[in-house]
Amino acid sequence: MSSDRLHWPSAIREDPRRLTAPLAGIDGWERTLWILVGVALVGDLLTTYYGLQLGLTESNPVARAALDRFGFAAMVGLKLFALAVGVGCRRLLPDEHGLLVPAGLAVPWMGAVVVNLSLYAIVLG
């Protein structure tokens, strides 16, 4: 019997169910931007939720109407819908324009996080 890694079962191979599996085919800056999209999405949701708990209101009229009608789950749904549209659009773009979609999602969501945090400073300060 050999102890060579090539003969061991699939424990060494990449598991397609890993969290990073969707990013496996993406390299460099685009991967970094998609990770930033995830961080920005979570950051925007968390800071929005906390702001609503402080008594602040959502400034986006579509999101505000969805929040009023369906609660905070609507905000999560809107973000996931935007993410799905972005992923779908990214598949249609050639690789040389691949950075546009994650940048187009990450920049406004990171901006929303900064705005929300600055509102906290005003309200709580």
Automatic annotation (TrEMBL):
Alphabetical UniProt keywords: Membrane, Transmembrane, Transmembrane helix
DUF5658 domain sequence ranges: 36-122
InterPro entries membership: DUF5658
Protein name per the record: DUF5658 family protein
Keyword Transmembrane: yes
Entry annotated with the keyword Membrane: yes
Lineage, opening ranks: Archaea, Methanobacteriati, Methanobacteriota, Stenosarchaea group, Halobacteria
Superkingdom of source: Archaea
Residue spans crossing the bilayer: 33-52, 72-93, 99-123
Pfam families assigned: DUF5658
